[in-house]
Design goal:
This is SET domain. This protein has 16 helices and 26 strands. By secondary structure, the chain is an alpha+beta fold. Among the domains are: 56 residues, Histone-lysine N methyltransferase , C-terminal domain-like (Helicase, Ruva Protein, domain 3, Orthogonal Bundle); 277 residues, Beta-clip-like, CATH 2.170.270. A hairpin with a 5-residue loop joins β7 and β8. It binds S-adenosylmethionine (SAM).
Length: 779
Amino acid sequence: MAPNVRVSNAFRAMAAIGIPEETVRPVLKNLLNLYDKNWEHIEEENYRALADAIFESQENKHLTQSSSSEDTAEQSQLLLRDKRAQHEVVSAEKHLRDKRKEPTTPRHPSRLERTEHPQLCPRDKTTEPGFVSPQTHCRGKQKEIVLSPQTCHSQEREELNRPCLRESGTEFGADSPQTQLKDKGKKPIPQIASREQISNSKRTSSALIKNHPYNALMKPKSEPFTDDIPHFEVPIAVIHPNDSCPSRNEGIQDGSEPMVFLNGNEKYENDGVSDIPNKSASSLELANISESSSADFEIASSPLGEVKISLNCNSALGRPDFHMPSLDAVLKMVEDKCLKSYKIINPDFSIMKLMKELCQCFLDVGTESTGEKGEGHTNVTPTLDSLKKSCIQNALGPKGSRVDNLNMPAGSLNCSLNFPSSAKDLKGSQSSNSRSLVVVHQKQFTLDDVRPLHDVADISKGEERVRIPLVNEISSEPYPPSFYYIPHNIVYQNAYINFSLARIGDEDCCSNCFGDCMSSSIPCACARETGGEFAYTLEGLVTKKFLDDCISMSHDPEKHNLFYCQDCPLERSKNEDLPDQCKGHLVRKFIKECWSKCGCNKQCGNRVVQRGITCNLQVFLTPHGKGWGLRTLEDLPRGAFVCEYVGEILTNTELYERNMRSTGNERHTYPVLLDADWGSEGVLKDEEALCLDATFYGNVARFINHRCFDANLVEIPVEIEAPDHHYYHIAFFTSRKVEALEELTWDYGIDFNDHDHPVKAFRCLCGSEGCRDVKHTHS
Ligand SMILES: C[S@@+](CC[C@H](N)C(=O)[O-])C[C@H]1O[C@@H](n2cnc3c(N)ncnc32)[C@H](O)[C@@H]1O
């Protein structure tokens, strides 16, 4: 083969994995020199040697920040000689093949085109809103993590690993146990994947990244770092363990002596750090694991269990070319190195997880050495909780009093790791033992602990078109539990929703309409789903017939169609090997609203739910023990839209994982299953079997209390953006005329007599004559 063809082929192969020609060129040149123009070595295994050399040269470039291309070339040559034969490299061809594999999903037939669901049967309440997936098995699998011995420079950093979130229709990577489950049985992940490659792929196609083997490497967006806390910089105690990870090193730390160096089980003093100002072992413990003379690795902990990791790279000192690298770049490089050098193929691997493991190890070892670990009432919390505690600390005044209006941005749980002198004022949350190591008493810190208080003038914080005030006229209970107010649903992580315009066929939109579709004498294509008639009246209310049908479905589900999945996602996630039979899903009526591909305007009468809340609502403390509730401040006619049920969109498996992790008092709302139209989709994949959870992220609907039978709201599925019927909006409409100041209620569909249900139902205080919580009503 002619050399120029071979060069082009090499460029093409590298381009396929996202490496530009200008990056390839100098490395290829060096490689050819090194291999004496022996192309076979370069071409074998899909240019493995070349890709390897490029990655290493780039890593090296990051490390030294050498701007000279000659330097880079020299470094690549050096690296090439030292190249490890065992490295595995992404197969360029495979990657290219994967990239081409865009999933295509056929348009789903409209409801009218579909065949009717034949089976009729009594309703099973476990399929109702209020049903929480009952899976309970635990999947706490320990990861194998190998620490890279290579030195690197980093400032101290913390990251709070909040749940990964993305706006509906956008994609963030997976970084969760769910991914493990989802990817179960799939091929191992190729071991070199830069974050750029991932995000490039992401831009190419969200559908692609969904199924992309690299998606497990993508991490939730990092929180801002806290990187300049001077009192962490000098160690109080220094540990030199034999291991790189402080595993079971039974070192003894003596809190009465602030400067204690530990080497394995040996203890010796070091005067060099004894005069650290403003330090006290009771407020801060710090271990320094010095692996080599070139780098120090420090871990600090506070009495609250907060842990800070710091890497000091001595070799950087005195180098004129050194500049502070971006932490993201450092983390990315370490992840890449770990993946390449140590062949870590756990799809969940991330350097932040490794750091957290490290913190956990640090605390484990620390508390183990006190001899107090293992008692049922104590627990050393991992970094996440520690950080949260730090936030609480910041939220408290000098004597532990709450500081109102803590200025913490919504959407951020991150906070700096400060150790205020009042740390000890947090009585009950922690204690120090005689050696000043910290034992944190088991306390479940929830969102309530870390979120700022609500804005009583508008609980939506300006997110809605109307203000939604909060009042408490009956007790001193100050605020409802904290949550993030979101006006629109947000995908938690793995839920698959495709909002692409290309998927909306001509029969699913009215591109030829203009102005208000309702003013036309002939209903447009968007009315097709509702039998050729709009579900809304000219006044914007749900039509009587449509509303009656929906209310009847809610009251007497057994009189309506239930669809039985052949392979029910709910049962599948309970027991993958031997799933139970589907318990049935109610086939509900849909409203289909006009949307962006339609020619009408935003004021079109067939756009009600998407315009958001328009009536005046108020969150209030209910008088009879139901907690907070929602009421209207104005009279509402029958069929009026009140609000949507907004929350995180989770897959059924994710909900199961969440339920497994949640503690009883953490759950404030009921997840709602979006199973109304599962029958139209054939066998649903887990990422298509969706539900909403408004516990942590939600809107005002999370305050709507349950009422058996005669609730004044009814929920109606509304299709807006996605013609795929596994995703729709849940909208609440009034089922009758509601007067100002009446509490708004909704029938959660709970079967209070189902004592086998994994989620214990609350004691119903709805007061309805037809209350289904018979045992409690009559006791
Ligand atoms: C979606 S939340 C409603 C808002 C809630 N009351 C609050 O204070 O945040 C559901 C929870 O409210 C309470 N709740 C709702 N309806 C109730 C009822 N009819 N009787 C008693 N408690 C009720 C239960 O604790 C339930 O778990």
